[in-house]
Every structure is written in C-alpha cells, then in structure tokens.
Amino acid sequence: MHTPQQFNSINLDSTVAKLHPNRFPRMSGRMSAIVGFLICEAVTQPAITEIVVTSDGLVLARADGEDSANHFIGRYTDVLRNWTALLALAGIG
After folding, report:
1. How many CA atoms lie within 13 A of 78 on its CB side?
2. Nearest one of 19, 68, 30, 88 to 11, comparing CA atoms
3. How many domains does the chain have?
4. According to a count of CB atoms within 10 Å of the terminal CB, is the N or C end of the chain lower?
C-alpha cells in the first residue's frame, strides 16, 4: 500500500513524464523552455528561471544567469491556450 506522499510522488513522476518535451518533437523551443521550467528540468539552454505575468497580460521570462525577466514569451491568453492544448495531448487535461 502506498502512503499519501508516495502516491503523490508517483503521480507527479507520471505527470512530468507525460509532459516532457522529448515526447513532443514538434514542440517549439519556447514551449519546451516553459515546460522545462514547470517540471523543474533544464531542457533548453539557457533555461527559464522565472516567469512573470504583467498586469496587462504579457508573459515574460528570465533566463538562467540574467538579472530580470527580459524575454517576451507571449500574451497570457495565448500561452494558456497552448498549455491547455499540451495537457490534452499529454492525456492530462
């Protein structure tokens, strides 16, 4: 029998494996970097170390080794739509 912590770890490992960019060869580098950030794995170089959503709905990222979030990722609604599509493709959403 699994303890709640073991069960959560198993589910998390399974979710990370389902989302890993290696499973999606046509995934853009930008989306790979976002997913890598969310699953806590550096899958791109440089890796994203921070994601910021501005008050006007823009998503910015800070790359490893940089001082601030200077990289424009996209509009929040577009990033959310792409994330939702990825969850569906991965069999999660």
Report:
1. 10
2. 19
3. 1
4. N
Which residues fall within 8 angstroms of residue 9, CB to CB, at 6 or more apart? Answer: none
In 3D space, the residue among 45, 15, 31 whose CA is nearest the CA of residue 85 turns out to be: 31
Give yes or no for a contact between 35 and 27, defined as CB atoms under 8 angstroms apart.
yes
CA-based angle 10:12:18, to the nearest 5? Answer: 105
57: left (phi over 0), alpha (psi -120 to 50) or beta: left
Length of the chain: 93
Closest by CA position to 77, among listed 43, 47, 54: 54
Domain that holds residue 31: 4-90
pLDDT in tens, 21-71: 999 999 999 999 999 999 999 999 999 999 999 999 999 999 999 999 999
